[in-house]
Amino acid sequence: MIEPPRPLGRHPGWPASLGPLRVAAGLVAVRGPRLWDGGAWSRIRLRDRDHLERWEPTAPGTWEDRNATLAWPGQWSSLRALARRGMTLPFVITVDGQFAGQVTVGNVIRGSLCSAWVGYWVASHVVGGGVAPASVALVVDHAFMMAGLHRIEATVRPENKASLRVLEKLGFREEGLFRRYLDVAGGWRDHLCLALTTEDVPDGLVNRLLATGRATIPQ
Ligand SMILES: CC(C)(COP(=O)(O)OP(=O)(O)OC[C@H]1O[C@@H](n2cnc3c(N)ncnc32)[C@H](O)[C@@H]1OP(=O)(O)O)[C@@H](O)C(=O)NCCC(=O)NCCS
């Protein structure tokens, strides 16, 4: 039987702060979102519209309005509410202590599925620096080892080569193509589905990054 989500309080694996790992861009860590992240979040997202918008779900309103500092408290409070009910693990990414993106485990389903999706974005000034692989590795290991999930999937537009590369580095398995799956940048877009289950990574994704020299643990 699937247990109904608890209305308030903590659930396994939340709250959490994870890392740091050292990658080319700097020291990467993840933590829960805070109300005062709004200024940095908005500054980066307004600057990075060209980098982000074509990969993100279509939403009402203008980019400027949706990503204004004033839009953050609403986002923060709904992420916090979902996290408290055990439905989401929402993390902010920091590089050298500064806000640099987000990685979210969403649609957490327990019972006999124990499954969720992972989504992520990083600021344009750190792309290519290994930030997304390190953040996703930290969060997926946590979701498997502390939050009790069994499967994590990521859905990516076939055109999004950078994102596919992130998942390839981490060893996600391609499982198929979802036709007209998600409304992204104004249209229903095909998405590749990639996934991992706990059996695929008995030693964890962080160890996989360490073993391939893509990250180190700071002394
Ligand atoms: C996809 C994304 C998260 C990758 O994050 P990242 O921290 O740059 O990841 P990596 O450093 O591992 O780089 C991944 C690949 O991006 C490409 N890349 C490298 N430098 C780049 C640059 N300056 N500009 C664009 N892409 C670059 C490379 O192919 C790289 O693979 P490589 O390391 O084998 O060369 C980031 O580009 C992003 O936020 N994109 C916009 C939002 C998005 O697409 N989210 C995912 C939706 S499914």
UniProtKB/TrEMBL annotation:
Cellular component terms per the entry's GO annotation: cytoplasm
Keywords carried by this UniProt record: Acyltransferase, Transferase
Family statement drawn from the similarity comment of this UniProt entry: Belongs to the acetyltransferase family. RimJ subfamily.
Organism, scientific name: Actinocrispum wychmicini
Taxonomy, superkingdom: Bacteria
InterPro entries noted in UniProt: Acyl_CoA_acyltransferase (IPR016181), GNAT_dom (IPR000182), N-acetyltransferase (IPR051531)
GO function terms (MF aspect): protein-N-terminal-alanine acetyltransferase activity
Residue ranges of every copy of the N-acetyltransferase domain listed in the record: 44-199
Protein name: Ribosomal-protein-alanine N-acetyltransferase
